[in-house]
Amino acid sequence: MSLSLILEMALTGGPGRPVVTTRGESLTAERFAGLVAGAGSVLRDAGARHAVLLAGSGIEQATLLFGAAYAGIPYVPLNYRLGKEQLTALIERVEGALVVADPRCLPAASAAGAQVITVDEFLARAGERAEDPVPSSAPDGDDPAVLLFTSGTTSAPKGVVLRHSHLLSYVMGTVEFGSAQETDAALVTVPPYHIAGTGTVLTNLYAGRRIVYLPDFDPARWLELARTEGATSAMVVPTMLERIVRHLDGAQAEVPTLRSLSYGGARMPRPVLEAALDAFPGVGFVNAYGLTETSSTIALLGPEDHWAARESEDPAVRARLASIGRPVPGVEAEVRRPDGSPVKTGEPGELWVRGPQISGEYLGLGSVLDAEGWFPTKDLVFQDAEGYLFVVGRNDDTIIRGGENIAPAEIEDILVEHPGVQSVAVVGVPDEQWGQAILAAVVPRDGTEADAEELRRYVRARLRGSRTPDHIVFHSELPTTVTGKILRKDIAAGFLTGAGNGEKTC
After folding, report:
1. Which of 232, 236, 335, 371 has a CA positioned 20 to 30 A from the CA of residue 178?
2. Quick one: pLDDT band at residue 351, thresholds 50, 70, 90?
3. What's the Cα-to-Cα distance from 354 to each of 88, 270, 293, 328, 349, rounded to whole Å?
């Protein structure tokens, strides 16, 4: 079985039902399937071995994803926000690429020596070939379906190989086919090169929910589109939700159709989540935790968990507002010490997961699954008595100060509660005396006067003295990926050298 099965099932569920909307234009399942057949034909005509997308979110994303499956080749969405040299290097790692590019990205694509076509031209050709498409290929479930490059926040990007069987296991294990009502619509703003960008296409189409794309995120436009298109669900990353909350400035969101709001991709600051819960009363919030290597979501904190945590007087239950929830059906989870032994309840360790949706395979490197199929996420977590998981940081982020291991999250969670702090990131920087020193990068709240010594005293009064930041610097905003992951190496480099983030080309 391949991803094409999802589109075939959507057709049986209602060929005249709208499935994708971008910039006011909607396609029915029947029209979309025809466009996909045309797209697959264009790829086959070109002799492409990989279908590369170098553009934002829109009909082109969904069309190329399923068009690649139709043609029997992998789909490869790339981060169009990278610099020209970075993009060129990534394209060169993909053999036989046909690059479907936004016009702004043509220089980077052309420099790689690959076949290149603009988004508009590709869609036009796909529409023409839809009249006389080539027969659909029949890729095996073990064939590569999607190749996604990691963000490279701590190292060079790695190409994660997701096979058809991984993605189908994720979709069919977490979503009920045809469960959406005909009026349901999902507002999608996550970029195509993030695993959620692929996951939202597959899961919403399988559920029968119309996908409404917002290509360029803006909080005011997001709210407007949610209202005009009658969005019943939406997926955002923490930085997007923070911008929506700041835009509302204490007012209600007033999106009466919205029933579910999912977030994920990075840690959610508790003050932002609490403000969002106030702005969207009655909306079911969902924390969806997953990785590229796990084909998207592997743990969920559902609406009932959010409401119970917000209303409970029990500190242990209230704490679950910061949890990623519990594993989804079909996924096993273990929390292990460095020697591989299981931790006790409440003790931090590395999260390992296993299940049919877990890939753990990298382009040119092979699989990192152990002999029993377990994948090391590199996320440090602990589990409470009811099985709720809490992420405390990444293995790579741990600060070793004077021989003591310090998780940045425990300091960040304290500082972000200060009334003068909008957001914060804590990183380790080299130090001759301690090995590493603690650096806190703070974004002050609007209209407040930030004071480093006051913030140090605030932390010292709530944590051990060894957790008090050695250095505090102030930023107008923190460097992040578009999905909200903090670029910690950029913060450390900026403190040590003053280096910038580089020029973006498209």
Report:
1. 236
2. very high
3. 34, 29, 11, 11, 16
Amino acid, res. 49: R
Contact 450, 442 (CB under 8 A): yes
Using 50, 70 and 90 to split pLDDT, how confident is the model at 38?
very high
Check: CB of residue 455 under 8 Å from CB of residue 472.
yes
Positive/negative CA dihedral, 94, 62, 142, 361: positive
Give the mean model confidence (pLDDT) for residues 332-359: 94
Q: What is the mean pLDDT of residues 480-485?
A: 71
pLDDT digits (tens, 9 = 90+) for 116-175: 999 999 999 999 999 999 999 988 899 999 999 987 544 578 999 999 999 999 999 999
Q: What angle do CA 84, 86, 87 make, to 5 degrees?
A: 65
Cβ(320)–Cβ(299) below 8 Å: no
Would you call 432 exposed, middle or buried from its count of C-beta atoms within 10 A (0-12, 13-18, 19+)?
exposed
Q: Encode pLDDT of 95-108 as tens digits.
A: 999 999 999 888 88
Sheet holding 260-263, edge to edge: 25-28, 18-22, 210-213, 185-188, 233-236, 260-263, 284-291, 296-301, 326-327
- Could you tell me if 263 and 287 are in contact, meaning their C-beta atoms sit under 8 angstroms apart? yes
Residue 483 CA to residue 237 CA, distance in Å, equals 6
Radius of gyration of the chain (CA): 23
**Which token pair is 412?**
């960040």
Q: Measuring CA to CA, how many Å separate 505 from each of 82, 84, 105, 478?
A: 7, 6, 7, 21
- At 148, which helix (H) or strand (E)? strand 144-149
Q: What angle do CA 24, 25, 27 make, to 5 degrees?
A: 145
Beta strand extents in 348-456 (DSSP E only): 349-354, 361-362, 366-367, 375-383, 389-394, 399-401, 404-406, 421-431, 435-444
Q: What distances in angstroms separate CA 192 from CA 54, 98, 220, 455, one per listed residue?
A: 9, 17, 21, 39
The answer to whether the CB of 168 falls within 8 A of the CB of 174 is no
Q: How far apart are CA 361 and CA 145, in angstroms?
A: 13
C-alpha distances in Å from residue 118, one per residue of 62, 94, 110, 253, 440 = 16, 18, 11, 37, 43
Question: How far is 249 from 262, CA to CA, in rounded Å?
Answer: 21
pTM: 0.85
